[in-house]
Amino acid sequence: MYKGVNDLELNHREVRRILEDKGITHLYHANSTQTACTFIANGGLLSRGAVEHYENYQTPQSSDLIDKQFNVWNDIFLDSIDLHTLFRRQNHYGPILFKYNLNLLDQGFQLPLWITKNNPIYWETGQLENERYIQDLNEFDTLYTHGSYRTMITFRNTHNYLPFIPFLEEIIIDDPELIWSSNKANLYEESEKAIKEAMDKSLHNYNSVSITRRECSNCYCKSNYKEQVTGEQMKLKFSVLNN
After folding, report:
1. pLDDT digits (tens, 9 = 90+) for 5-31
2. Sequential DSSP letters for the chain
3. Which of 14, 52, 203, 229 has the most CB atoms at less than 10 Å from its CB?
4. pTM over 0.85, yes/no
């Protein structure tokens, strides 16, 4: 395990209890198709630093420099809510959503768990630690409400993976209903195919994990994908077409 500070580590089971008391039932992580395939091959989520350390592939993210600047490059991030559904738009980190059940927080691997007060992309140089992180369980219970999307669960300073099995219930894939012009490939179908192939090739057994095409209602994701996301961004986020 990558060594780092752990003085703000919170008790996993107590965090679960607080989340459940506030109506939270799952934890989520969104990423690109190609990074998701790397996770699947390795059996679980990895920090950006871990993927780099093991010389695996991951799609570049606009937050990479910030992650390194603020010492979260080796952290694994989870949301307590599906941001796509909350905001009625695509998740900017990617169209593949991993959906964990809360049993993840009851297990013995116990990677150091910290909770941010804000997404690190909004942190400022010179902030104190108590401005960036929840300090204890009482503060978490007081400050956290259902839908606190910038309050992020992080597993700190690790090169270990956060296992998918038996905690991952579902992989949800966005469908922008777009065709890649160069070879007439449907972006959803390309992503689904890549995810399934990664699962089939993996040494880990993913038979218990379902793959779901996201069904949106009163959502802006499809129009956003068409009007706000460039062709190169779509290529990076959705498919393995740039390999």
Report:
1. 456 899 999 999 999 999 999 999 999
2. ------TT---HHHHHHHHHHTT--EEEEEE-HHHHHHHHHHTEE--HHHHHHTT------TTHHHHHHTT-TT-EEEBSS-HHHHHTS--TT-SEEEEEEGGGGGSTT---EEEBSS-GGG--TT--HHHHB--SHHHHHHH--TT-TT--EEE-S--S-EE-TTTEEEEEE-----EETTTTEEHHHHHHHHHHHHHHHSSS--TT-EEEE---SS--HHHHHHHTS-HHHHHHHH-STT-
3. 229
4. yes
**Are the C-beta atoms of residues 103 and 182 closer than 8 Å to each other?**
no
Choose among 160, 154, 162: nearest CA to 77.
154
Residues in the chain: 243
Number of structural domains, the chain? 1
pLDDT digit string, tens, across residues 25-71: 999 999 999 999 999 999 999 999 999 999 999 999 999 999 999 99
Residue 7 maps to a domain: no
Cis peptide bond N-terminal to 166, omega within 30? yes
Domain with 234 in it? 12-238
Confirm whether 39 is domain-assigned: yes
- Is 4 inside any structural domain? no
How does pLDDT run across 117-153, given as a tens digit for each residue? 999 999 999 999 999 999 999 999 999 988 888 899 9
Amino acid residing at 157: N
